[in-house]
């Protein structure tokens, strides 16, 4: 008997919408869902752990991964750093029939739409643009110039909402996570 191939779910949305927060909640409450760990050329933020939050790689290592086809998708984000999804772990999880989630940016989601059109695409939206600005400023992880760059990117990303199969509004992390998991066809967590 063979294991049925699972369907990949792609979660994307504008910067500061809370993709990482929803993913962390999902990881804590739904351990059966495998969450891809992206590779990035950016430096770790305080508290980030290599291999858990991201695979932090040099620009040269990232170039090698691109050249060898080791990435399912990749993009330059905010005009600065590159992020990408290692291909092999995703393919292995799906072949094993395990639920898999990619938390990626809009550029990456568009690439996956081309390479894996059978995937399910979920847009994580803020309750409002004002709330998105509040969250970005409240993080305190970016300087004024970086915040301005990310807000300009967010406006472009918000316009892409119609490209997605589903929209989940992140007005409450637990509720948004539960809605995402329901879209994935998984049972609700027992709290």
Automatic annotation (TrEMBL):
Guanylate kinase-like domain span: 6-185
One annotated GO molecular function: ATP binding
Coiled-coil residue spans: none
Binding locations of ATP: 13-20
UniProt-listed Pfam families: Guanylate_kin (PF00625)
Cell compartment(s), UniProt: Cytoplasm
Keywords in alphabetical order: ATP-binding, Cytoplasm, Kinase, Nucleotide-binding, Transferase
GO cellular component, one term: cytosol
Enzyme class: transferase
Reaction(s) catalysed (UniProt annotation): GMP + ATP = GDP + ADP
Enzyme Commission code(s) on record: 2.7.4.8
Family matches, as CDD domains: GMPK
Family affiliation: Belongs to the guanylate kinase family.
Annotated PANTHER family: GUANYLATE KINASE (PTHR23117:SF13), GUANYLATE KINASE-RELATED (PTHR23117)
Function according to Swiss-Prot or TrEMBL: Essential for recycling GMP and indirectly, cGMP.
Entry protein name: Guanylate kinase
Organism, as annotated: Cellulomonas pakistanensis
């Amino acid at each position: 008997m063979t294991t049925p191939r699972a369907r990949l779910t792609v979660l994307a949305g504008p910067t500061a919408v809370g993709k990482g927060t929803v993913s962390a909640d999902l990881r804590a409450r739904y351990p059966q869902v495998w969450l891809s760990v992206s590779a990035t050329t950016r430096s770790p933020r305080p508290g980030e752990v290599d291999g858990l939050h991201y695979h932090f790689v040099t620009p040269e290592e990232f170039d090698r991964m691109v050249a060898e086809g080791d990435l399912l998708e990749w993009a330059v984000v905010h005009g600065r750093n590159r992020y990408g999804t290692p291909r092999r772990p995703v393919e292995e999880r799906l072949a094993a029939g395990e639920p898999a989630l990619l938390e990626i940016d809009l550029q990456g989601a568009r690439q996956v739409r081309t390479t894996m059109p059978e995937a399910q695409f979920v847009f994580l939206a803020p309750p409002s643009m004002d709330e998105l600005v509040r969250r970005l400023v409240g993080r305190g992880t970016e300087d004024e110039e970086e915040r301005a760059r990310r807000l300009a990117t967010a406006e472009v990303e918000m316009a892409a909402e119609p490209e997605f199969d589903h929209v989940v509004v992140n007005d409450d992390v637990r509720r948004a996570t539960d809605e995402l998991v329901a879209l994935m066809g998984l049972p609700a967590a027992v709290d």
